[in-house]
Design goal:
alpha/beta, 10-stranded mixed sheet, 15 strands
Length: 339
């Protein structure tokens, strides 16, 4: 029987050093019906020439501008035909057997729309990595956390989260997704540009009745911060602005106003915490995020999903504040706060 076609699609913007290090391992993936594609977001380094000279079998889609993570993938994937896509960061190391477990899980249940592998830290391979760990969740105020990662607190991987499990979101650093459904729901929301767009995507597909899973049998290793470091104020801006957009788009109507108000309060607390730590750029990044969100409030509200379900009230959402649990109650591990 013919295995489904999988396209591993890497979005690149000036990451030639990562391509030199990790692209060969993607090509060596032990899966027969595979296409490797690089979407280039108008890089100004030697990325495209390097691929053309060293990897003849890799398809290159060159975009005329940098459309960010969301726009780059949306434009490029329109030109890629496959049964499944893997949205893979250029700074991810894979082994040859990483893909088959993802395919097996997806084929076992047609209600599964997206899957992530277990994400470990490339620099410290016994620890989970920030961008996804072993599957993503949110709390009642929309703050994301993971099996293996709460804010900046990363757990050592001791096999404690090795079970296949339904989760709320799958990381965009290595997201295996049903290709047909990706296009049916309109792909990633380009207003996000970068950061938290995968959470919005996963929320939307769950509202349609599909499932998001983690498959820890598949392991990959993520460098992290390949484009923006975790402490970069630009990333702070996108995370705080996009967190609010995520809520206004997807929350049930009766929850919308009280949760948005509480989220704004919690954001202010985080901002002043940075200010007292001397991180003034992060403080002003939060202020800028709030200003831009409020200025376009009517626009964001019009983007609300027409399909509202009880996903937000499911067991995949923590019914308390993860910030309170972590910073006040000193809970460091996912097992201490698990929904």
């Amino acid at each position: 029987m013919m295995m489904p076609k999988v396209a591993v699609v890497i979005l690149n913007f000036n990451t030639v050093d990562f391509l030199k290090k990790f692209l060969i391992k993607v090509i060596q993936t032990n899966y027969t019906n595979l296409e490797v594609v690089v979407i280039d977001n108008a890089s100004t380094d030697d990325s495209v020439n390097y691929i053309k000279e060293n990897f003849k079998g890799v398809r290159i889609i060159q975009l005329e501008n940098n459309y960010g993570f969301t726009g780059g993938y949306n434009r490029g994937l329109k030109l890629v035909e496959a049964d499944y896509y893997v949205l893979l960061n250029s700074d991810v190391e894979v082994d040859e057997n990483w893909l088959q477990p993802l395919v097996n899980l997806a084929e076992s249940d047609k209600n599964i729309a997206a899957i992530q592998p277990k994400i470990l830290d490339y620099k410290s391979k016994s620890f989970f990595e920030y961008a996804g760990a072993s599957g993503g969740y949110i709390d009642k105020y929309g703050f994301p956390f993971c099996r293996g990662r709460i804010f900046e607190s990363l757990e050592e991987d001791k096999g404690q989260y090795d079970n296949v499990k339904q989760v709320f979101w799958a990381t965009g650093a290595a997201m295996f997704v049903n290709a047909k459904l990706y296009h049916e729901v309109g792909g990633l929301d380009e207003d996000f540009f970068a950061h938290m767009e995968e959470i919005d995507f996963c929320w939307r597909i769950q509202n349609l009745g599909y499932k998001v899973m983690v498959c820890p049998e598949s392991k990959v290793y993520h460098v992290g911060g390949g484009t923006l470091q975790k402490t970069n104020p630009r990333k702070t801006y996108y995370n705080f602005r996009n967190g609010l957009i995520l809520l206004i788009k997807n929350l049930p109507t009766k929850k919308l106003i009280p949760i948005i108000i509480m989220r704004l309060i919690l954001d202010h607390i985080a901002a002043y915490r940075w200010l007292f730590q001397g991180k003034t750029k992060d403080f002003f990044a939060v202020a800028k995020a709030h200003r831009h969100f409020i200025f376009k409030l009517r626009y964001w509200y019009k983007k609300r999903n027409k399909t509202q379900t009880n996903v937000y009230s499911s067991e995949l959402v923590l019914k308390e504040s993860i910030a309170l649990a972590h910073y006040v109650k000193k809970r460091q591990f996912f097992s201490e706060v698990a929904p």
